[in-house]
Amino acid sequence: MQRLFLGLLLISTSLMAKTGPDFDQYFVNKTMRVDYYFTGIKGETTISLDQIKEEPVWAGSMTNLIDTLNYGNHKVEIFDINTNTLIFSKGFSSLFQEWQTTDEAAAGIYRTISASVLIPFPKKPIKFVHYSRNSNGAFEAEFETEIDPDSRFIRRDKPQFNYKVKSYINNGSPSEKVDILLLPEGYTKKELRKFRDDVKHFMTVLFEAPPFNEYKDRFNVRYLEVPSEESGIDNPRTGVFVKSAFELSYNSFDSDRYVLAFDNKRIRDIAANAPYDQLYFIVNSDKYGGGGIYNLYSTCYSHDAKEENAWWPDYVFVHEFGHAFGGLADEYYTSQVAYNEFYPLDVEPWEPNVTPNTDPETIKWKSFIDADTPVPTPWEKQLFDNIPYKNQDERYQLLRKQEYWGKVGAYEGSGYVSEGQYRPYLDCKMFSKSLVNFCPVCQNSIVRVIKFYTEE
Ligand SMILES: [Zn+2]
Questions:
Q1: For site-directed labelling of 229, which of 254, 344, 391, 442 has its Cα 20 to 30 A away?
Q2: How many angstroms is it from 437 CA to the middle of ligand 1?
């Protein structure tokens, strides 16, 4: 009797857990890559379809097909045309959206930037709908198209570049794990040995950082040995241009240390050799720099020119992954980042760790705040701001002397601005250039994303 009861209970909980669309009903285990172009200026976007490709293996979850995180400046939704059922969605950010916040875009100079969306390969015709956030932060449909998976217009050739996939950490099936694909940029054939050492180094760094240390078994890590013809990457401010494999460059969006890649299709064609949820470029350079865009890719320089700064790349590596994987915002505000109104004060940002809202009843990380912590939370900001940026240690010490050190609250100064935006914690890997851990709110976001990829 008891055994029967338990059996029934097991059946009913497993039925309850499964609420989303059934993968096998709508999809096959392959990837459909939809390439399109963003064109426009600030406040104006046109999206045009480029091409659709079939790629091997679906790396994303087969259980969580509907994105519940609500992160990113864009999202796509896929509908089964016959039944008008939502069968897949995913949030992401883009180079184009970030470019739209620059002076160039505000001056009305049009640009076109390529982007790709990876979806599981549908069995039947679908409606593909692309959304961007409007000025109020809400998603608005911007582009839609119907795709017949049997169409002869879908390119089905094998990956154009044939690089062997090397597995560094293997914990199981791509659809049940977070799959990181590491790509070498600016390493010549002779330097690929150094790249392998860098893979080892950065994966040790990443998986020592909480919360990744506790979830290492939910990750697969692979890399491709793609040689560059010449060593290093472009540095336009010093007139250095290099023949590197992926054409990454410093000074992206005219920000000296910002390293990005714009040749999206080449990147995707090479990456297609391996299943991936996250792309990470390790850049063979000793000049400080990196970048990370949510669900697009991360970049990080490999080593620092100065011995005493040997730990800087370790900080950059995990920080950028916080952006690209965890959907985290920068919590710092001292840096000279060339953005205009990146976070308008009257809109709640989608990122989980920055807010202009100081209402203790509605602040989005309310559940992390103790009842006796005031919101906004007082701290010696003026004193902190008066310490020169280069005196890192002094800044570090002052933060740790604050009354609410170790408490989640709402500390003014975040998202590049000194006033009106708040961060959840005095110090965090998204706030200071140091080897400090992610704050509790940022860690929680990362864990949510890990679970989305790996849990039923
Ligand atoms: Zn944080």
A1: 254
A2: 9
pLDDT digits (tens, 9 = 90+) for 195-209: 999 999 999 999 999
Q: How many whole angstroms from 190 Cα to the centroid of ligand 1?
A: 39
Tokens of 350: 């989608």
pLDDT in tens, 220-260: 999 999 999 999 999 999 999 999 999 999 999 999 999 99
Amino acid sitting at position 352: P
In the chain, residues under CATH classification 2.60.40.3250 are: 23-147
For the chain, where do the domains classified as CATH 3.40.390.10 start and end?
A: 165-328
pLDDT of residue 456: 78
CA 429 to ligand 1 center in whole angstroms: 6
Report how many helices (DSSP H) and strands (DSSP E) the chain contains, helices first.
Answer: 10, 15
Q: How far apart are CA 225 and CA 193, in angstroms?
A: 9
DSSP 155: B
pLDDT in tens, 139-166: 999 999 999 999 999 999 887 788 989 9
pTM for this one? 0.94
CB under 8 Å to 456, separation ≥6 — which residues?
Answer: 17, 18, 63, 64
CA angle 312/98/329 to nearest 5° reads 50
- Contacts for 146 with CB less than 8 Å, ≥ 6 apart: 81, 125, 126, 127, 128
CA 73–ligand 1 middle distance (angstroms): 19
CA distance linking residue 138 with residue 131, whole number of Å: 9
Q: Is the peptide bond before 376 cis (omega within 30 degrees of 0)?
A: yes
DSSP sequence for 177-219: SEEEEEEEES--GGGHHHHHHHHHHHHHHHTTSTTGGGSGGGE
- State the distance from the centre of ligand 1 to the C-alpha of 83, rounded, in angstroms: 42
When pLDDT is cut at 50, 70 and 90, the band that residue 19 belongs to is low
Quote the strand ranges of 302-396, DSSP E. Answer: none
Which architecture does CATH list for 165-328?
Answer: 3-Layer(aba) Sandwich (3.40)
CATH topology of domain 23-147: Immunoglobulin-like (2.60.40)
| CB-proximal residues (5 Å) to ion ligand 1 | 353, 428, 430, 439, 442
User: Which runs of E-coded beta strand occur in 270-334?
Assistant: 278-283, 290-293, 297-301
Instruction: Kindly state the tokens that stand for 38.
Output: 């963003």
